[in-house]
Each structure stands twice: as C-alpha cells, then as structure tokens.
C-alpha cells in the first residue's frame, strides 16, 4: 500500500499535481479541505486501518511535520513516497497571484512557509523521494532522489541542451 507525502510552499503546484496523477487512485488528505487536525487525524486513521492509498497534500515544510505521516504509514506497513515541489518563491508568488478568490494566499504566508522549509531527505524514512519542478508550459520535470546525489537537479548531465523528459 502506498502513502504519498507532498512538501512544498504554497502555489508550488501540489494540488494540481494530485489532480493529474493521483485523483483516481489516492484519497486526498488536505488541511485546506479538512480545516482541522482532528478531521485530518480521523481521515488518516480511516485510510490506514482500511489500507487505502492516500496523498497528504499539505505544505509539510518541516521534517517533524512529515515524520508524523511517515511514522504512522510505516507502522501500517505502507510504502512511503515523498514529492518535494521545488520552486522559486518568485514563481510561486506569480502563480499565487493568478489564483482566484479564496485560493489566493497572503504573500507573507508563502514567505513564512519558505522560512520554515526543511528540504525532505530520504533519511527521514521515505522509501522513494522525488523532486518535482513545474515548467512554464504546464508540464513537470520529475527526478528521483538517489541516496548519493541529494536534493539538487543535475545541471548539465541530462543532455546537450539540458533537456529532461517531460511528464
Ligand atoms: N505545471 C503548472 N504550470 C503552470 N501553472 C501551474 C502548474 N501547476 C499548477 N499551476 C498553477 O499554479 C497555481 C498553484 O497551483 P496549486 O494550487 O496546485 O499549488 P499548491 O502547491 O497546491 O498550493 P497550496 O499549498 O496553496 O495549496 C494554480 O493557479 C495552478 O493553476
Ligand atoms: Mg493545494
């Protein structure tokens, strides 16, 4: 069974990615939707006890926040997969400003999350960890983090034009 844990500042593309990749297969656990930790805990427990796949679609900026889900999922014998949505804050603010109504978050909220951000690492207990980067054309670049390469996208190792496979 699979538990997917997202990490990324506001407007880094998490919920859009969920819709495109997990909508048909995984329950979405999102504080934006559930509003309270109590509801989140109840839904999380329901998923774990029924062995339902799920995605935690929160910003999850700190290792401590992620550890809650990783620990519970591992105890329930889930495979734990992480996705780190790597974006510049400038680009995130532009995307945020283009959202409508209640989906626009205050810029200071984005900066606050950025300040607390601890990039996820395999050592936290992820079985697999991916980096996701949004492209201007709406596609994504997805890279799996190898134990020895750490967080960064390779700059030049992917071909003469630096191109990478589009997803
Ligand atoms: N690949 C993409 N290319 C261009 N724009 C995108 C892409 N993915 C998402 N967006 C746009 O960026 C904005 C933010 O995306 P999204 O709502 O998925 O972010 P989020 O990480 O879930 O944010 P939050 O943490 O606030 O929920 C949206 O307006 C969305 O339409
Ligand atoms: Mg979202």
Automatic annotation (TrEMBL):
SUPFAM superfamilies: P-loop containing nucleoside triphosphate hydrolases. It comes from the Bacteria. Pfam families: AAA_33. This is AAA family ATPase. It comes from Pontibacter ruber.
